[in-house]
Design goal:
Length: about 160
């Protein structure tokens, strides 16, 4: 008997953007003893995004592994509620990065299936480099919506226009 494999709809064209965000809050607490390496910490962070991604207040949780006084790696998840390219909803970014005495390097991807509302079907990835002392962080983000999500958004907009 033949079996079928579920397929993910292909993405529509990719949009590349360069925008910025600012740190609004950073709260860190140690996990285990301080002053020894390696050591772990948890950080809760709030950011504000401007540009093609607009979110006045995100929620982010990181696990930080310090390998020295000012070096280490981190991983985290960030809940972004706002707009992407004018479409409103929420989605989650998975983030991984490193840091040293000069700053932070981070790559991120949209968690598949996490988009809601107008951001259903959102996929993409990006990165940023933060230099210590900078108040605004520039990031690059390449994103697309699956063809199914784009068709559903168009159908909803058409239905709304016809009922008005």
């Amino acid at each position: 008997m033949p079996t079928t494999t579920p397929t993910t709809p292909p993405p529509t064209s990719t949009t590349s953007t360069t925008n910025s965000f600012t740190f609004k809050d950073w709260e860190e607490s140690p996990v285990g003893p301080e002053g020894v390496f390696p050591r772990l910490a948890r950080a809760t962070v709030t950011n504000a995004f401007a540009g093609a991604v607009t979110a006045p207040e995100t929620t982010c949780a990181y696990t930080v592994a310090y390998t020295g006084d000012s070096t280490g790696t981190f991983t985290g998840m960030e809940l972004v509620t706002g707009t992407v390219g004018g479409r409103e909803g929420a989605f989650v970014l998975e983030e991984r990065g490193t840091f040293d005495a000069t700053g932070t390097h981070c790559g991120f991807t949209v968690v598949p299936g996490s988009g809601t509302g107008g951001l259903t079907g959102l996929g993409g990835s990006g990165s940023f480099v933060h230099r210590y002392g900078d108040t605004s962080v520039e990031y690059a983000f390449d994103y697309a919506f699956t063809a199914t999500a784009a068709a559903a958004t168009t159908a909803t907009a058409t239905a709304t226009d016809q009922s008005a």
